[in-house]
Structures are given as C-alpha cells and as structure tokens.
Amino acid sequence: MAAPYPVDPLLSGPFAPIRMECDCADLILEGDLPRGLEGTLYRIGPNPQFAPRGAYNPLQGDGMIHAFRLEGGRVSYRNRWVRTRQWSLEREAGRALFATADPRDHDPSVAGVRSQGAANTHIVAHAGRLLALEEGHPPIEIEADTLETRGPYDFGGRLPGPMTAHPKFDPATGEMLFFANFPDRRFDGALSLYVADAAGEIVRAERVPGPYPALVHDFAVTESHVVFVVCPLILSLERLQAGAAPIAWEPERGAFVGVLPRAAAGSEVRWSPAPAGMAWHMLNAFEADGRIHIDLCQQAAPAFPKPDGTAAPEEELRQFLTRWTVDLRGDAPVAVRRLSGTVCEYPRMDERRSGRSYRYGFVACLGGPGTGDLAHRGIGRFDHATGQMRIWTAGEGQAISEPVFTPRPGSSEEGDGYLLATIYDEPRRASCLAVFDAGQVETGPLARAWLDHRVPAGFHGSFGERGRAQADA
After folding, report:
1. Could you tell me the CATH number of the domain that includes residue 197?
2. Is 96 a member of any domain?
C-alpha cells in the first residue's frame, strides 16, 4: 500500500506530485488561441511516484513530462513518467527504493543498482530526437507523440558519460553544443565540451581544464566562443569521506568566467576572475567591441551552507538579471552590472537570436528563493533598449512556470510571438496552459486551456511545431 507523502514545502501546494498518467483530447478553452499557433509545449519536472525515503531532494525526484498540443484551435494534453531503471523497480515494488537526498537511505534490495538519473530537468529536441535531460547522467530519449520512453541515448557511443541539462543551439548552423560536469569522475575542475552537428552526430569533444571542482549547471555560446561561468559551489571528496556535506559554498575562492574559441582545443580556454556570486541559468551571451556580455540570473549565495555549516541569509538567495562582461583585449576582472531590480528566475529568449546581440528576455518573477514564497507569481519581459521590466502579475494563489517563447508564424522580428506557461490555480486545484502575446506580457493571457488536475511546479520546457520540440537557448 502506498504511503502518504510527508509534510514538506517541496511536496505540497504547487509542488505536490500527482499520482496518475492521463490523456485529454480537448481541454476547456477560455479566450482565443492565436491563429497559426500550432505545436507542442513539453514541460518536465520532478514528480516522485511514491513517498520518498528520508529527506526529499527534488533534483532527484522522478521525472514527469507534460505535453500540451495546440492544433486546429484545440489543445490536447498527455503526461507520462520517464521510465528510468529506478522508476521501474519502484513501480514493481510499490514503494520508494532509492533515496533522493542521501544514498545511505537506499533500500538494501537495490544496493549496487546503477542509476539512470531522474531525467527531470529539461526536455529538448535535436536532429529528430526528443531528449529528457538531467546533468548527472546521459539523456533519455522520448517518443515525441506518445511520450513513451525509448531509453538512454549516448549518440551512438560517442557520449561516454553525463550531459548538461542546458545544451545550446546555434540558429545558423543547427549545431547543438553541450558540456559534462565532472567528466570521468575525476573531480579536478575539468569540463568536457561536445559539439553535435545538425544531423545529431558528435563531431567534437574537448576536455576543458577548470579552476576548481564546482557545480556548473548552465553555460553560454556566442557566434565565436563558448563561455563557462564557474561559481564557488564546491564539491569536496575530502568532506564526503569525512562524513560531512560534500557540496559547500566557498565564496573566498571567487568566481571565474572561461572563454574558449569554438574552433580551439580545450586547453586554450582563458579564465578571468569575477566577484563571488551564484548563477544557475544563463539568458544569453554575445560579442561586441572586443567584449563578451553574459546575461544571467545571479544570487549573492546559493541555498547551500559554507563548509562550517553557516547558511546564507535568506535575502542573499534572491536572483536578479545581471550582466557579466569579459574584455577579450586585456586581463581585467569580469565586470558585473545588475540590469533589473526585479527578483526573477528561469530566463528565456527568442532563440533565433541565441549567441547574438538581442533586445528581449523573458523571466518568471514575483517569488522564488529569498522572497518567502517558493512559487513564482508573475511573468516579466525585460527590454535591453529601455532597461525596463514589464510584468504581468498572476495574483494570489496562482503559481506560474518558466515562460517559453515561440515566434509568430511568418514573422522574423525578434520578440514577435507568444509565451507559453502553465499556471496552477491553488483554490481551483487545477492548472492551465496560458498563452501570452510576448510583446504585451503585462496585459495577461490571450487564452487558457484548463486541466482538471495540477501540473506540479517543475523546471524547464520547450515548444516545437507539430510535436517536435524547439531547442532551448
């Protein structure tokens, strides 16, 4: 018999798991879908099928995919768990076997079972394959229409280990660039960089030496360079062996930005020092006048303690849209400038401008770490030309996801298109797919397609035409 989920902020309210898979051919629609907007929004996030063993870490919760298909003025829906090895073993057992926070809490029956990861962080497509991602393991391929799990994917044996959850796509070449954190499990600070061509073949693999063994979640790509932002969230095998927390915040080490020409060997990376700060997600990067500008969401400190157990003050967890600038003409430290005073996370853009100069960025805002509210209650559009953040406020009891941009059919103008996000209505205990005019975010949704259940707060998503997911920037 399945046990109830424990009382935990990350297992309740907008984050509470759902325990079923279902299909709905025609959601109830409020408003009008824009003409010509057809395709599928895929979203993914943690959704443990059973009450977790020990403390709960959402980064290891079973991945569940939610797919909203827009076609012929209607919206259909399907959700499926990713069938990882550990998900299947637990489904057969009827209870959790694998701990999400501390491997010492694993059930003895799965001792020695090799994990395939949670596959819960991002879902993207490239070269006709839909991939569920999390950075500790290889991708898991998903069938785009049925959401059936096809199994781990290693690029024909060319990917020997994990892959980042945030690959980058060059809109000019169709290449997918991605990296691996802690390749070969050496924990020496090195990263592995890969390039897959438009056909999905890995054509380059480089080992990139780094400053220290840090958790690196995201990176950036310009037309000519790959950019790594390494922050002092350090993994220490010595602490692990001593029975202490292996991951700790060590701000005295400072941060670094690594710049590598896209055609160069990994050993040619150039590291520039930066003030200590934590950046989980990049909005974009581009080159101008001998400089590289990296726009990202930065917090003063992450929700990880220092080695002595000291936790950061709550207000230091807030994230702000910030620009880091590397001057390629000298050896000056990285310049850091806050772009907006709005607390925000999950930055997205018009991916047709990925790696190029651009004007607009889109964020989830009005909530999140450091605000006293873990959920986001609004969507913002930042305009680099004016420096203004226009915001739509969802309202009390409304939890909103990362916004995903898709262009208006037939338009090539940057930012001319739509944002798609899910909104959980807490009083109604149901979620909807909301469609916004990206140029007028502050006016609210053009249309909402309602489910009869909740879509738990997740991580990332992609939109693509006719069932093929669009690449993430």
Report:
1. 2.120.10.30
2. yes
